């Protein structure tokens, strides 16, 4: 069962009944799910989790779905936390680890947010969902929508990765493209959802997607035997993942799941140099970001010119003593090659940007050789068939090589 109690605005603190259909607070702030963590802690101890289902649903008490019959799952979560020692040693970080979200259904961590978001949508009786997407979230929400029997409408930039577009259409989504950025897609969705009565599921415009993503934080703690790492690097677009991980760690601390005096990992928001509004705001000491003009990067999932939850990302980074890093595309492509060749991990460009960031942070002395560092790789390289363009020699049939 769930110990969900209510929704709370992350901006003004106003509370709402969790069992009504909600988007934003009256003040336009995002709503977060709150639980009776005392009761949850009394009901389940970390040791009780061991025999549970190997998916994010093992953290059932702190997930926002009331009845098991509404759970929509494709087996998402409990992804491997791998030691990447060969890569780490080349960067001067021998204790480097990578959480590989690429093995999730639909190939990215977006499966987590859509599994929980769609389950809750089904529970609340929602029949039609619409959202803007850079690609991966669209693929995932469409897949879970098909499984839940909920109609999905997507609007995405014309240059969204072909594989995600194909995936979304294959599982039956109604998809549109816009000559513009995800923020332009968002404006179209907002206008149209109102006109058609669709439920708007844009990043942080509904309260439940983040609850799925926060389970990455629970898993990292559990997989490390409830001992947190020193730093977690996260490729930040809308920022839901990093906000979710921060929320998860605070929940675990409140439930007494972590050792007495456990320190927060320093959270690092990594963005692309071609679209780094949150990094800029961090270094300028601001509480929120300004829209980034002319956004461009190979890491399309983190091409978000203005995030609704930017102030929450900045809060999570600052509260944990973390930092923000902008990575040029050439460093991302270098990172992709480096991790593929040293570890056999063909990851997505968003995840590869973390390799460039880790190198930079080690060179600057911000990361120390003994630090236990987790790179949160958000997806699989195979979702980006155009990211590398190898030119292979073509042989005649009678050739010997
Ligand atoms: C592969 C990948 N990584 C990272 C992100 C950014 O996610 P978040 O909203 O959690 O910042 C996205 C979002 O589209 C993505 O597709
Ligand atoms: Zn509010």
From TrEMBL:
State the Gene3D superfamilies in the record: 3.40.50.1100
- Asked if Magnesium is a keyword of the record, the answer is no
**Cofactor(s) required, per the database record:** pyridoxal 5'-phosphate
Tryptophan synthase beta chain-like PALP domain ranges (all copies): 72-379
Return the Pfam families for the record: PALP
InterPro entries in alphabetical order: Ser/Thr_Dehydratase, TrpB-like_PALP, TrpB-like_PALP_sf
Q: Does the keyword Lyase apply?
A: yes
Q: Which SUPFAM superfamilies match?
A: Tryptophan synthase beta subunit-like PLP-dependent enzymes
Q: Which UniProt keywords apply?
A: Lyase, Pyridoxal phosphate
Q: What top-level branch of life does the organism fall under?
A: Bacteria
A single MF term (Gene Ontology) = threonine synthase activity
The EC number on file is 4.2.3.1
Q: What is the top EC class of this enzyme, as a single word?
A: lyase
Protein name, UniProt field:
Threonine synthase
């Amino acid at each position: 069962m769930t110990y969900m109690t209510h929704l709370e605005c992350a901006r003004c603190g106003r509370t709402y009944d969790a069992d009504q259909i909600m988007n934003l607070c009256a003040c336009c702030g995002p709503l977060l799910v709150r639980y009776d963590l005392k009761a949850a802690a009394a009901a389940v101890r970390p040791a009780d989790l061991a025999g549970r289902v190997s998916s994010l649903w093992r953290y059932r008490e702190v997930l926002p779905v009331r009845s098991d019959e509404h759970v929509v799952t494709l087996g998402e979560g409990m992804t491997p936390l791998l030691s990447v020692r060969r890569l780490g040693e080349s960067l001067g970080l021998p204790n480097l680890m990578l959480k590989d979200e690429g093995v999730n259904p639909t190939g990215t961590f977006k499966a987590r947010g859509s599994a929980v978001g769609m389950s809750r949508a089904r529970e609340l009786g929602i029949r039609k969902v619409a959202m803007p997407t850079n690609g991966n979230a669209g693929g995932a929400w469409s897949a879970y929508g098909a499984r839940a029997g909920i109609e999905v409408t997507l609007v995405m930039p014309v240059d969204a990765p072909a594989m995600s577009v194909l995936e979304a259409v294959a599982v039956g989504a109604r998809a549109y493209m816009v000559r513009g950025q995800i923020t332009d897609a968002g404006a179209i969705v907002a206008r149209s959802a109102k006109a058609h009565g669709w439920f708007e599921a844009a990043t942080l415009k509904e309260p439940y997607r983040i609850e799925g993503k926060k389970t990455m934080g629970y898993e990292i703690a559990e997989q490390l035997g409830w001992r947190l790492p020193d730093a977690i690097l996260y490729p930040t677009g809308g920022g839901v993942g990093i906000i979710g991980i921060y929320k998860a760690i605070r929940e675990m601390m409140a439930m007494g799941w972590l050792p007495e005096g456990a320190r927060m990992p320093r959270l690092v928001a990594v963005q692309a140099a071609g679209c780094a509004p949150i990094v800029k705001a961090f270094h300028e000491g601001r509480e929120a970001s300004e829209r980034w003009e002319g956004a461009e990067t190979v890491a399309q999932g983190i091409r978000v010119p203005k995030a609704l939850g930017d102030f929450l990302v900045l809060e999570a980074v600052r509260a944990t003593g973390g930092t923000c890093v902008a990575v040029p595309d050439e460093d991302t492509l270098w990172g992709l090659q480096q991790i593929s060749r040293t570890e056999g991990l063909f990851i997505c460009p968003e995840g590869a940007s973390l390799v460039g960031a880790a190198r930079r942070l080690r060179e600057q002395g911000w990361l120390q050789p003994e630090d236990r560092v987790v790179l949160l790789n958000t997806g699989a390289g195979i979702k980006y068939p155009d990211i590398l363009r190898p030119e292979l020699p073509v042989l005649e049939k009678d050739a010997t090589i």
